[in-house]
Amino acid sequence: MTTRLRVLDDGAWISVDDSREVRVSELWRLDAPDLCECALTDLVVENFQSVGVDGSTVEVQVYGQCIACGEAGTTGWVPVGRVRGGEFAELARSAVRSSRARPPRQHVPDR
Amino acid sequence: MVTDVENWKSEVYGNEIRDRLFEFAEAGFDSIPDDERDAWFERFKWWGLYHQRNGQEGYFMMRIGTPNGVLEPGQLRVVGEIADEYARGPGTNPIFGDAYADFTTRQSIQLHWIELSDVPAIFEKLEEHDLSTQQACGDSWRNIVGNPVAGKDGQEVIDAWPVIRELNETFKGNDDHANLPRKWKVSVTGSADGSGQGDINDLAFEPAYKTAGGDGAPRGSEAGDAVGFNVRVGGGLARNEPRLARDIDVWVPPERVPDVAGGLSALFRDHGDREDRYNARVKFLVDEWGAAEVRETLQEEYVDFELQTAGRDVREEYTYNAGEGERNDLIGVHDQKDGRNFVGLNVLVGRMGADDVLELADLAAEYGSGEVRLSQRQNVIVTDVPDDALDEFLDEPLLEHYSPDPSPFMRGSVACTGTEFCSLSIVETKNRQVRFARWLKANVELPDDVDEFHVHLSGCTASCAQPQIADVSLRGMKTRKDGDPVEALDVGLGGGLGEDPQFARWVTQRVPVDEVPGAIANLVERFAAERDAGESFRAFVARHDDDELDAFVDPKETDYEDPMMHNTKRTWYPYAEDDGMEDAPSPPADD
Ligand code: HEM
Ligand code: SF4
Ligand SMILES: [Zn+2]
Questions:
Q1: Where is the Nitrite/sulphite reductase 4Fe-4S domain (chain B) (predicted)?
Q2: In this complex, do A109 and B276 lie within 8 Å of one another by their Cβ atoms?
Q3: Interface test with B, best of A9, A20, A25 (most B CBs within 10 A)
Q4: Ligand 1 centroid – CA B581 distance (Å)
Q5: What does the alpha-carbon distance between residue B472 and residue B137 come to, in Å, rounded to a whole number?
Q6: Would you tell me the crossing angle of helices B119-128 and B75-86 to the nearest 10 degrees?
Q7: Which of A11, A27, A111 has its CB closest to that of B478?
Q8: Among all ligands shown, which has an atom nearest to the Cα of B66?
Q9: Which CATH architecture has domain B161-317?
Q10: Would you state the pLDDT for residue A109?
Q11: Interface test with A, best of B30, B32, B278, B509 (most A CBs within 10 A)
Q12: Which of A24, A25, A26, A6 is nearest to A16 (CA)?
């Protein structure tokens, strides 16, 4: 089954199967050496750039800023949740996520 | 590959959306098929309806586009009545109450908590009174802005109001220009004060003289020169990529403005980026092409007459939002050219309760002609007040609250929508700016000769409050305070328009919101102590480097308390008693 994924409203939302699921303005803990030098990036999520899915894992690239060091930029691909049995479940907000350069199998740079 | 948004637009967009919108309104919000919601919400924007953020499912923000901010006699009353009847939702704002209207930085009006089922009735009432939401949002010609008192202003070079009206009539609902790659913001200004803020629009017409006899002819007296407009293209503030509109070296007489504006809009339609919405605004096309190529393409492909080169502008006279000089805003009593007066009233952060809107509409009819106008500083102007009615008007109790002579901290405040309703927001904004302004007024002393101090607060980098062109720019961020995430603001300084516009420099990052008033107090204290005689705040900032300024800002806690430090975006409504998402109301039942 294909999952419909979109970045909407100027990067405010990730829509999964036509439902607005993941939003900006959260703080994410990231393992993202590509973005900043902090051991853990403390990222303010400002604008989604692109979204994709690898197997059941929905991944995004996001523009934001690390509030620990001030570095701003676009992350690599970061998981935000999973689609299981047609339902999307967002990762726990406290989860540490890792950003990787390799894009997921299907992705759309869409907004 | 074009985006989903572009695909939806190519299926249904523009005027035809209206019938479907009405069908959904008739059948109820739930009749929008789940798998078409994203598409329809995107399309509804073209008719001025923007779905509010999560937790507010089924409620819409409605934007009414009032060209140049002009509300003809009777129209303000209609807006007040609609706000009173329809802009009520499950949330009550602790400062502004249950029903209110927002006057915006682009001279429009926004109402909140609008239910889809009410849209046909609202449209009918608006249209009966020549008001409209058409193209107020979405990828098309947006509300045209300018000097709000065009046609009346004693300081006018040329009356831009007929030009704006003609552009509005030509390009609203015009299928050739209905589907652009992105929003298209136009400013037409005829006064010499710069109050149309052309520099931050996609397309700007600014007053300029052209010597009769064409280029090379000796400069005549102003009286003998033709008056028209110079053209600039590609300004905008959004997304950490602020640009000033660029001079394309074109002067147009008023009667040619629609041709040139239509040519440039068509150029944007055909050449703008439809594959990447972040790169779609015309400012990026101008970056890529340069002003000369824009001019050349316009001349060769989009107009059928010889363009003239730029005329002599009046930019050195610009004062609006310029940091010093007279008329930084249009507050207070000013002369009209017909001998009557216009009176600018301060509407703090642009929001006015529906009752007050109705009362103001009555006062405008009683003392003036009934007309009011909206400025780009979120304020309202009552026009056509004769000298002999002035004193009595100024004594009206309503004007104690909407003052023609407010504190600099009140009149300088501009704030966007923020977490109350907006999906992109990172922090609470309007109520916070009200709290800031009140605290600053009570606790901070500006030097006696300084009567302007603009503080603009935007909840994110979209920059709806135009933070980059303020003395103090505030932009939503997060930080940790004692380990806990709290709302924070980046602080920028020294922005403004005028002859040489300047964007603020972001000197201090991530100040916890409760320390911002203290930071501004410290900054003003240093300014007062160290300024040269008569120096404006903007000039003071200009002669210091970022590190010096960062040291002046010096955040600190004061007796200012901020009740909205937590993540207000995780609430369904920040001011609700039970504010958690689990307490969010269900979409409004259809009635
Ligand atoms: C639900 C609330 C709102 C949302 C979701 C919203 C969305 C946006 C977005 C996404 C942008 C960036 C535009 C771009 O990249 O082209 C923007 C910019 C802007 N908006 Fe809003 N907006 C909202 C409310 C307002 C209000 C209340 C005003 C006042 C009229 C306003 C006026 C502006 C202005 C002046 C800009 C300037 C940016 C530029 O010049 O590029 N918006 N808005
Ligand atoms: S600046 Fe950001 S938070 Fe404020 S209204 Fe615009 S989009 Fe929303
Ligand atoms: Zn970091």
A1: 137-302, 410-544
A2: yes
A3: A25
A4: 25
A5: 28
A6: 170
A7: A27
A8: 1
A9: 2-Layer Sandwich (3.30)
A10: 61
A11: B278
A12: A6
Q: Which residue, among B456, B455, B454, B462, has the nearest Cα to B426 in the 3D structure?
A: B462
Residue among B515, B508, B517, B512 at smallest CA distance from B557: B515
Residue ID of nearest Cα to ligand 2 atom 5: B417
**Residue B197 pLDDT:** 97
What amino acid is encoded at B230 in this protein? N
> What pLDDT is recorded for position B217?
46
The 10s digit of each residue's pLDDT in A45-94 is 999 999 999 999 999 999 999 999 999 999 999 999 999 988 999 999 88
Residue B220's pLDDT is 47
Hey, is the C-beta of A24 within 8 angstroms of any chain B C-beta?
Answer: yes
Question: By three-state DSSP, how is residue B398 classified?
Answer: helix
Instruction: Please report, for chain B, the start and end positions of each structural domain, with discontinuous segments joined by +.
Output: 4-128, 161-317, 332-404, 410-570
Residues 6+ apart with CB under 8 A from A95: A29
Between A9, A27, A67, which is nearest B423 by CB?
A9
Question: What average pLDDT does the segment A24-37 reach?
Answer: 94
Nearest to B466 by CA among B144, B381, B474, B491: B474
Q: Which residue has the tokens 């002669």?
A: B543
Q: Say yes or no: do domains B161-317 and B410-570 share a fold.
A: yes
Is B423 touching A (CB cutoff 8 A)? Answer: yes
Token pair 């400069």: residue: B219
The β-bridge relationship of strands B246-252 and B226-233 is antiparallel
- Is the distance from CB of B177 to CB of B266 less than 8 angstroms? yes
Highest CATH level, class, for B410-570: alpha beta
Question: What distance lies between CA B363 and its chain's CA centroid?
Answer: 25
Question: Which numeric CATH code is attached to B4-128?
Answer: 3.90.480.20
Ranges of each domain in chain A: 5-95
Measure the CA–CA gap between B414 and B427, rounded to whole angstroms: 15
| Start-to-end Cα distance in chain B | 42
- What size, in residues, is chain A? 111
Instruction: Tell me if the domain spanning B332-404 has CATH number 3.40.50.720.
Output: no
For chain B, give the number of residues. Answer: 591
**CA distances for B506 relative to B495, B511, B550, angstroms:** 10, 12, 9
Contact B100, B3 (CB under 8 A): no
Nearest CA to ligand 1 atom 42: B464
Q: Measure the CA–CA gap between B460 and B479, rounded to whole angstroms.
A: 14
Residues with pLDDT less than 70, chain B: 213-223, 590-591
